[in-house]
Amino acid sequence: MQKRINITIRKMTINDIPEVRKIESLCFDEKWHDRAFEDDLTQKNSCYIIAQYKNKLSGYMGAWFVGDEAHVTTIAVSPEFRGCGIGKLLAWKLLNTAIDYGCRWATLEVSVKNEPAGNLYRSFGFSGICNRKDYYQNGEEAEIMLARNIQFRSFKNRLEKIKREWEQKICLSLE
Fold first, then answer.
1. Do the beta carbons of residue 121 and residue 75 sit within 8 Å?
2. Which domains does the chain possess?
3. Model confidence over 124-140: pLDDT tens digits?
4. β-pairing, 105-111 with 69-77?
């Protein structure tokens, strides 16, 4: 049985960027350019959220809301917090925010080698629509994934089911 932990999900701020950068360096070979997070945080149609455990940043996720599309730009969970459901919490919150914003579908790119991330996205109803060769700087291929009809009751029911699953494992508070 997993230990229950209290996670807070809130909007990312400029002050969070140094900790976000630390997680990014632990999770990715490719880093965003120096001002990417700062630039995105100033955009009206972007949404970046963080997960905290006891005031320690444990993960983050971001998306752009363009027209009726939510495009997931990034997600990372600190290695010490993997397996706790934090990635699922972040995705759940971000997709609910996209629904509230009026988005009708969501897209993202994921490394074809990142099986845990691909499985996470599939659990939310994303499916692969094509691959992009040499998408990443290291030449790795990306799978383009799409979640359709996120405004539909069936998608919202999926989100509710996912919420019930992680509520049994962890305690969540949202700010």
1. no
2. 6-174 (3.40.630.30)
3. 999 999 999 988 888 88
4. parallel
105 closest CA partner among 141, 76, 129: 129
Q: Single out the catalytic residue among 69, 109, 140, 141.
A: 109
Catalytic residue list contains 80: no
- Residue 137's CB is within 10 A of a number of other CB atoms, namely 9
Cα distance between the two ends of the chain: 27
Residues 46-101: pLDDT tens digits?
999 999 988 899 999 999 999 999 999 999 999 998 888 899 999 999 999 999 99
User: Rounded to a whole number, what is the largest CA-CA distance in the chain?
Assistant: 42
The pLDDT of residue 100 is 97
- Candidate list 48, 53, 60, 121, residue with the active-site label: 121
pLDDT of 15 > 90? The answer is yes
**DSSP-assigned states of every residue in 104-160:** -EEEEEEETT-HHHHHHHHHTT-EEEEEETT-STTS--EEEEEE--TTSHHHHHHHH
pTM of the prediction?
0.91
Torsion of CA 47, 53, 55, 56, to 10 degrees: -80
Is 121 annotated in the active site? Answer: yes
